[in-house]
Design brief:
The structure is a single chain. The chain contains 9 helices and 9 strands. By secondary structure, it is α/β, with parallel strands linked by helices. The chain has 2 domains: about 170 residues, HUPs (Rossmann fold), CATH 3.40.50; about 90 residues, Pantoate-beta-alanine ligase, C-terminal domain (Pantoate--beta-alanine Ligase, Chain: A,domain 2), CATH 3.30.1300. The strands form 2 sheets. It has a 6-stranded parallel sheet, sandwiched between helices. It has a 3-stranded antiparallel sheet with strand order 7-8-9, covered by helices on one side. It starts with a strand and ends with a strand. The structure holds adenosine monophosphate. Adenosine monophosphate (AMP) binds next to helix 2 and strand 5.
């Protein structure tokens, strides 16, 4: 594995890549969720590039940019063991210049749910993903369904800008109790970790309702909110179609049910594709 930190070094290392390139962008503090993306990309491509970059433009004022968990040494080991070919860990200076043009997230779907709570987050995310996709020259790029709205917007960007890359959606990886893995879970103490399970439990409750034929969004949301009472604060419970348009009734095969809530220090998100 080669570790590269500049654009020039990345371009140089890429000269060895003849054939398909799989690409997995991350912000590091790698866990089994990231690893599942890396393993899938490894299996499906001749070459594999992983990036680790905590992108400042997707953090809002007052968010945890400085405190975001960083575990460079462990991340390098994980990537080595996973047979990554190129690990790209650029500096902020390598990625950005002072006065850049920017990409704006779509006016509606970029500013609801996660985008409403974090206005500007998705524009920053799309900006860095555009840069990273261009730099990697990926044939296929892998993203987790965990960040479902992010995934939908990346798909839209690739479509709107006619980008020549296939976006692969990967399933959510959970711990043995059902908690969706996240780099921010390190902020949870033991008691909070138990309460954090209310997110996945609320989604299980929704599944059960759908299985007995209850398709009303209003009814399902109400029941989910009951389960989510264990959280410190619920930010939203939403039921949308796969392109993030609102639904009144669940459409089997085209629905995502989402929850976002604060438990202790971190704000947690989880979702379920039906
Ligand atoms: P992040 O480092 O949080 O930016 O995540 C990098 C990629 O890993 C994104 O595409 C995430 O959606 C994905 N990811 C994060 N957590 C999980 C998880 N628990 N299961 C599957 N994918 C995940």
């Amino acid at each position: 594995m080669v570790i590269v930190r500049t654009i020039e070094a990345l371009q140089e290392a890429k000269k060895a890549c003849v054939g398909t390139i799989g690409f997995v962008p991350t912000m590091g503090a790698l866990h089994k969720g990231h690893l599942s993306l890396i393993q899938q990309a490894r299996a499906e491509n001749e070459h594999l590039i992983v990036s680790i970059f905590v992108n400042p433009t997707q953090f809002l004022e007052g968010e945890d940019l400085d405190a975001y968990p960083r575990k460079e040494e462990a991340d390098i080991k994980i990537c080595e063991l996973a047979k990554v070919d190129i690990l790209f860990m650029p500096t902020i200076e390598a990625m950005y210049e002072a006065d850049e043009l920017s990409i704006g997230a779509p006016a509606v779907r970029g500013y609801i749910l996660e985008g409403q709570k974090r206005p500007g987050h998705f524009s920053g995310m799309l900006q860095v993903v555009m840069k990273l996709l261009n730099l990697s020259g990926a044939t296929k790029a892998y993203f987790g369904k965990k960040d479902a709205q992010q995934l939908a917007l990346i798909n839209q960007m690739v479509k709107n800008y006619f980008m020549d890359v296939k976006i692969i959606a990967c399933d959510i990886v959970r711990d043995e109790n059902g908690l969706a893995l996240s780099s921010r879970n390190v902020y949870l103490n033991a008691e909070e970790k138990k309460r954090a399970l209310c997110l996945s439990r609320s989604l299980k409750r929704a599944t059960k309702l759908v299985m007995v034929g209850e398709l009303s969004v209003e009814v399902i949301q109400k029941e989910m909110l009951e389960v989510l009472e264990e959280a410190d604060m619920v930010e939203y419970v939403a039921i949308v179609d796969r392109a993030f348009n609102p639904l009144v009734r669940v459409e089997i095969g085209n629905t995502i049910i989402l929850a976002a809530a604060w438990v202790g220090k971190p704000r947690l998100i989880d979702n379920l594709w039906i």
